[in-house]
Amino acid sequence: GINAEYGKQWYQRRVREKISEVFIPALLGRSVSSLERDILELPVKLGGMGIINPARISQREYHCSRQITKPLVKLISQQEQDIRKLNREEVKNTKDQLKKEKEEYLKERYDMLYKDADHLLKNHLTQQKRRELLH
Fold first, then answer.
1. Whole-prediction pTM value?
2. Residue 41 class from Cβ within 10 Å (0-12 exposed, 13-18 middle, 19+ buried)?
3. What's the rounded Cα separation, in Å, for the pair 105 and 63?
4. pLDDT tens digits for 30-57?
């Protein structure tokens, strides 16, 4: 209900604040702007550090978990005891599709952050992306 949603939002806000106000400054030796924080959230291959924002990703991750486990939930709800009847191909296809969607989302996020970045941040993002292409 409302209290559970409020509790989830409160928890996510507190975790986000601790990451931004305690963990990142301890890691980098300084505070960061909200744009820098968003860039740090990107994976390393896109110039970030993969330091997630739980509030931003939790809904998507929950959705992905539900999609991936749907065939297993179906077996369980049918009280099927033979796990070999799990359609592994369906699970693999779902994982592949969700991974593709995540990559597209991250690319869009990178493009948006790049557009808002100053010259130094753009240079960093461009260099990191080139490094990834070489490996």
1. 0.80
2. buried
3. 14
4. 999 999 999 999 999 999 999 999 888 9
